[in-house]
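Feature request, filed as a ticket because there's no other form

It would be nice if the structure record came with a short human-readable summary line next to the tokens. Right now we just get the raw output. Example of a typical job, pasted below so the devs can see what we mean:
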Amino acid sequence: MHLPDVLFQPLQLGAFTAKNRIIMAPLTRGRSDPGSVPNAMMTEYYRQRAGAGLIISEATGISVEGLGWPAAPGIWSAAQVEGWKPVTQAVHAEGGKIVLQLWHMGRIVHPDFLGGQPGISASATTAPDYAHTPMGRKLHEQARAATHDDIKRIVADYAHAARNAKAAGFDGVQLHGANGYLVDQFLRAGTNLRSDEYGGSPENRTRFMREVLEALIEVWGADRVSIRMSPNGETQGCDDPDPASIFGAAAQVVQDLRIAFVELRQPGPAGTFGATTVPQQDGLIRSIYSGALMLNSDYSAEQAETDVASGRCDAISFGRPYISNPDLAERIKVGADWAPNTNVPKSWYLPGPEGYIDYPALVLA
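Raw output as currently delivered:
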């Protein structure tokens, strides 16, 4: 049985139009060359998935300081810009759109990536569990609290990365404000222990996010800037006792700035970063933010159609299904089965084409 056409209506996302409402969510895959430089294999990976209404790229480091994942790409150097150009060109040649997700991992960056120096965060806190480092899994270490000069420098790093993204040919940028990384560390009271203008009240804790978004808007215009947030429950040790207050304040910021769209990660019982144990916040954010809203995490095609048709959201971003279904939008359109992820999670992050660009497209009889 074919789904109704609601997922295949175009959607205005600020300055550009998505051809459908099936969005490819950001997916860290760890296939970059040394120096965090994108390569030809990544170009093919994104080209295969250009049938999505929009591709949100894998999380991409804005600076050496902000990137703590082996073989993840960056966007701070000229070589990285040149590496991304074939990716954007390939997606555009297939009729697709792609925005670059800008990433600073904050306290999740292990000192092994920083010559032994501590990572940086809103406050001097330590993430739980282990970091993935070039030397293997290691316990996280305490980060240092960002000074005012650090904050100004990091905001400038975001602006530099945004300019590089424009030079690389992207259609816009997304600020990674989710999953316990730096922006999220400033938002949540469990990781933001500051007593200055960046801490305390929800309005103060959104200040860093606002300053970064304003810097991105200065480069791109508000209609090509977006954000991803994860407003439900603990993620990588980052939590808040009153999520409605902080994410209501964050929603007011993005409403005031009139950015192109907001994507919310809302994990289910088997979510990658842990299950949600608090009420979903998308209704609150929807009531404040009037732009396009995307929901993400563990959706089936039927659930996606239901939530878009009901007006709960305007689009659904699919993550893991896009790993093994490069033509996911076409499969949904014709009601075909989804290919399962094989060799998981090994194939998610290891180098090479296996489990990356070797999934076959649907063959119609």
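Something like this underneath would help us a lot:
The CA atoms of residues 89 and 169 lie 7 Å apart.
Confidence is low (pLDDT under 50) at residues 269-277.
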